[in-house]
UniProtKB/TrEMBL annotation:
The protein's Enzyme Commission number: 2.3.1.189
Annotated organism of origin: Eisenbergiella tayi
Keywords assigned by UniProt, alphabetized: Acyltransferase, Transferase
CDD domains in UniProt: NAT_SF (cd04301)
Domain of life from the UniProt record: Bacteria
Leader peptide range in chain numbering: none
Recorded GO MF terms: mycothiol synthase activity
N-acetyltransferase domain segment(s): 2-162
Originating gene: mshD_6
Name of protein: Mycothiol acetyltransferase
Length: 165
């Protein structure tokens, strides 16, 4: 059973080990980092910057006191009604075992019940079918909006998903 807690800087040491190749890395982070691979320090530096720019809430899911999943949340409006999830990831050794669905379920509960968000959005690349299916399984709907990215000398489409209270 997963539990959710605020992110600790030491969690970055785990997160960077879950990313085994650059394609996975880019599906997770898009173009938010300049280079691959990244270090825990790189993650924490980006998060420190995000904390200055956004109403930024990084969270870690854990079982047996060890991080097993992670995402961040940030409000996208001044009224704090719309929240965006980003950098959603599960320990690669635990993928396909329901951890992603549990991470999202806990995070949505936190977003709607504690933060009082009315809507949660996220983006997922169309070439990341397992993540797309996981998001849909917890109730996210495809808005039909698309954003284009040029990643690894390819054009990737990012699909916009949302779920409302």
């Amino acid at each position: 059973m997963l539990r959710l807690r605020p992110y600790r800087k030491s969690d970055a040491e785990y997160i960077v080990t879950w990313i085994k190749d650059e394609v996975t890395f880019r599906k997770w982070s898009a173009d938010r980092f300049d280079s691959y691979p990244i270090t825990a320090e790189d993650v924490n530096k980006l998060y420190d910057n995000y904390a200055l720019l956004y109403d930024f809430i990084p969270m870690t899911a854990f079982d047996d006191d060890k991080p097993s999943g992670h995402l961040f949340m940030r409000f996208t409006d001044s009224d704090k009604k719309e929240l965006r999830f980003g950098f959603v990831i599960v320990d690669n050794a635990k993928r396909g075992m329901g951890y992603g669905k549990e991470l999202l379920t806990l995070s949505l509960q936190y977003a709607f019940e504690l933060l009082m968000a009315q809507k949660v959005t996220l983006g997922v690349f169309e070439n990341n079918r397992p993540a797309y299916c996981c998001y849909r399984s917890v109730g996210f709907e495809d808005t039909g909006e698309r954003e284009n990215y040029h990643i690894l000398q390819e054009d990737w489409k990012c699909l916009e998903l949302e779920i409302s209270r």
